[in-house]
Amino acid sequence: MAAQVQPMIVPTDAELLQAQADLWHHSLGYLTSLALKCAVELGIPTTIHRFGGAITLPNLATELSLPPSKLPFLGRLMRLLATSGAFSADNSTETVIYRLNPLSCLLVDGVVVDGNAHQKAIVLAANSRHYIEAALSLSDWFRKDMPVRSKSPFEQLHGAALFEESMARLDPESHEIFNEALAAHDNLGISVVLQQCPDLFKGLESLTDCCGGDGTTAKAIVKAFPHLKCTVLDLPRAINAISADSPSVSYISGDMFKFIPPAQAILLKLVLHFWNDEDCVKILTQCRKALPPRAAGGKVIIIDILIGSSSRTMLETELLVDMLMLAVTNGQQRDENEWRTIFAKAGFSDYRIVKKLGPRRDTDISKEPRNQLVTLKL
């Protein structure tokens, strides 16, 4: 028997007008991110920086070598990006002056932020054809009856997986951008962790950084704690491209699902959100095998997103990143209950949230008698 259709509560005129505005905002939100991609490709953040950090629209067009006919359109682009918070705009004079703000500072070529280069690869990757097409295929993906451990919409559509050789064969240029974005994403923020959460590393003599890439994070840690010996574990294709330049950091190629080099602490910085729950349990189980007893200081340090910010904007950002994981990987972002379940299945019986750092968060996990887990939410 078909369910009875319940009558709809008719919104008021004011509610309908607001709802229409909200609908347009949600439907056209993608244009903001694509406008930011356009600004990155034109080199607008770098141009403003080279011009002294502030520039008028006519000067910006000249510096970008744009045709004079494009000046009005450039103004419309910058107006949107300034309104959305990508740039600052000073309207107190007759001619608007555009300035860099913390967000656009991250997109300046050649400027080191937090010990790392610019973050523009993140903008280019997130707005790439491959990412957008994967998101466009979500409804088709949902309709297909597939095992839980099935291919992501990205892999199902493109026949290639992110960061794998299959992606390199499909589109070498995009593969390089995706890896640059991954490195930019992974490395940013470690100096904040070291400044605000130094107790995480105090007293440690050894640490293994799983999926540590080129060792940027490990080198920042040993710079702050010179007595600490760090081992970077990553796949052979990542390790083979590295030239070791620090006596306190060693590199080992391997698979964290099979073996993790023993250390007093294991670091998983922005790693677990790429994996489903079952795989996360396997990784954490290998961590337990690599650790000494808790009495000897053994612990796992996890730096990752923890869904649940009180700020609506921050929470929406966390959920957007979760949707990105749904579209392009087999992983996900997790709330505290979901993290707790994973920790328990891996044999850890307690945790502690250490510090909230922007959209990620710090959590300390340690009831289990052998070792301790620390999760950082940045």
UniProtKB/TrEMBL annotation:
Q: For the O-methyltransferase C-terminal domain, which residue ranges apply?
A: 138-349
The protein's GO terms of the molecular function aspect are: O-methyltransferase activity; protein dimerization activity; S-adenosylmethionine-dependent methyltransferase activity
User: What are the BP-aspect GO terms?
Assistant: methylation
SUPFAM superfamilies cross-referenced by the UniProt entry: S-adenosyl-L-methionine-dependent methyltransferases (SSF53335), Winged helix' DNA-binding domain (SSF46785)
Alphabetically ordered keywords of this record? Methyltransferase, S-adenosyl-L-methionine, Transferase
Domain named O-methyltransferase dimerisation: which ranges?
24-108
Which Pfam families does the annotation name? Dimerisation, Methyltransf_2
Active-site residues are H273 (proton acceptor)
What's the protein called, per UniProt? O-methyltransferase domain-containing protein
Q: From which organism does this entry originate?
A: Eragrostis curvula
